[in-house]
């Protein structure tokens, strides 16, 4: 049997603060929830520019299908973020959900 994860201990060891669970769902309410997370997390950098999550410090290129990019663009319009910012948030949520279910 595997030992259950102690999320509080992991957060403490990483110097992180556990803020709760975020679960995004599809449809109108999922878009509203995603927009709320954008509003709560994104800030304009001190030097100006596009608002972003200040904790993001890595930039990577990924390949997407035209359909997926179109869907991200639709969500981005609803959330007032860029398509790749929406993708980063959705990816973060998916990884947190997957790690939490181990």
Topology (SSEs and partners):
Blueprint: H1 7-14, H2 27-41, E1 42-43, E2 52-53, H3 66-79, H4 83-100
Antiparallel strand pairs: 1-2
Jot down its keywords.
two-stranded antiparallel sheet; 102 residues; 4 helices; mainly alpha; 2 strands; globular
How many strands, which pairing sense, and closed or not: the largest β-sheet? 2 strands, antiparallel
Helical content band: 40-55%
Task: Summarize the helix and strand pattern as letters.
Answer: HHEEHH
Question: Number of DSSP helices?
Answer: 4
Give average pLDDT, whole number. 81
Unreliable stretches (pLDDT < 50, length at least 5) are none
Question: Oligomeric form of this entry?
Answer: single chain
Radius of gyration: 15 Å
Note the overall shape. Answer: globular
Could you give the order of strands across the largest sheet?
1-2
Number of strands: 2
| Overall SS class | mainly alpha
Strand content: under 5%
* Alpha-carbon distance between the two ends: 12 Å
Plain-language structure description:
- It is a single chain.
- The model has no long low-confidence stretch (mean pLDDT 81).
- The chain is 54% helix and 4% strand.
- It is mostly helical and 102 residues long.
- A hairpin with an 8-residue loop joins strand 1 and strand 2.
- A two-stranded antiparallel ribbon has the order 1-2.
- It contains 4 helices and 2 strands.
């Amino acid at each position: 049997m595997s030992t259950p994860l102690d999320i509080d201990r992991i957060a403490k060891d990483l110097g992180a603060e556990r803020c709760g669970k975020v679960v995004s769902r599809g449809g109108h309410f999922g878009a509203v929830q995603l927009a709320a997370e954008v509003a709560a997390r994104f800030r304009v950098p001190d030097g100006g520019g596009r608002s972003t999550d200040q904790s993001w410090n890595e930039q990577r290129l990924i390949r997407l299908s035209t359909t997926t990019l179109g869907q991200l663009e639709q969500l981005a319009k609803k959330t007032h973020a860029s398509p790749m910012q929406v993708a980063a948030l959705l990816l973060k949520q998916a990884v947190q959900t997957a790690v939490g279910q181990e």
